[in-house]
Design a protein that fits this description.
The complex is a heterodimer of chains A (217) and B (164). Chain A is α+β, with helices and mostly antiparallel strands. Chain A has helices at 5-14, 20-46, 53-76, 83-95, 107-113; strands at residues 2-4, 81-82, 102-103, 132-142, 145-154, 159-167, 173-174, 186-190, 193-200, 203-207. In chain A, strand 8 (186-190) and strand 9 form a beta hairpin. Chain A is globular. The chains are: A alpha+beta (217), B mainly alpha (164).
Chain lengths: 217, 164
Amino acid sequence: MSNTLKQSTKSFYDEKTLSEQQQEALGNLLAKHQVEMNEEGGNKNKGVSRSGFWSRRIVAGVASSVTLALMAVLFLFPSSANVQGVATEVAENHRHLKPLTIQSSSYQKTGAFFSELSFLIKESSLLDEQRWQLMGGRYCSVNGVKAAQLRLRDKRDNSVQTFYQVNNKPGYFEGIPDIRNNELPLTVNIDGLPVQVWSEGGIVYSLTRSLENTNQL
Amino acid sequence: MEFNQARLNRFYQYCFSLTLHEQDAYDLLQSGIEKFLKHPPATSAAEEPFLYRIIRNRFIDQYRHQQRFESEPYDDEQHSVDFDISTLESIFIDNHTLNKLMAELSTVEREILFLWAVEEYTTQEVADLMSIPKGTVLSRIFRLRKKLQKNCDESDVVVGGMGQ
């Protein structure tokens, strides 16, 4: 199927992303630079005497190492994520729609593809299956946790929406409403894009569509 | 400039448009950022184009040296062209053909394509970033369009009328 040259070129480059290791390495490079800048600023303000030079260097070196280690740990293993954090990442990924790795309208077939997830993807009771048609999915991450990025077609207006599912790790996701406790999904507006977040049966769901004052979407 | 994940990926994609090789693109990005951090621009508004230029110059230094970058002069042709970069808007192409075509395009053509399609730069902005005359960018687009038209005869590429 042909797209405009611009769309096809964007899709081509959207598939080119840094690996986690590469991102980590660049993160370390930037963090190291920040530490050096801070040190340099501190030295300019205080002045460095020759007698205390080496002891200060050692202290600064240890502090840099600890800071870098902490930043690396935070980068790799974020401690928690809230509704805003989830919605922001979902909105960002929705705006850069990447090609689907599996294309299928079957949850069973698509679920079999996501074998690396610790849970089985499933429809949420909030979504009206007569209205939403599954198109397929690809792996992604939400706040550092491996997730399924599904694509749904809204039969009402034929629009394509992004639907995330991620394991609701105990103590990790904070403030996510659980609809089984009769809590309503939260809607966060990210630069004009409404993103809904809720949890159900141990899964955090997020959909790029606004709540329409009904019990079911 | 905040180097978040999306921005790093965007710069990486630019590097890939130059190198057409994933590891080379990463190496180029890393060395570009290192130089950027050592010698940042005076104003924050100029940071993004500044990093693009660093990456570009490093690429030319490294790869021209290895004769992997075309050595033809940029201003070798100054066609009288009466179209703009937006003429590319009228071209339709499927992903498979584009993947194949990428390897056949010159580095400069890929770069122009990236800056236009992904960064959505105008002809003048492309010329400024590449430090070449606008007329040279236009003649490159002319050449790029001809290549696409050639593919049109061979595969699933559709070229519409000239847009302005």
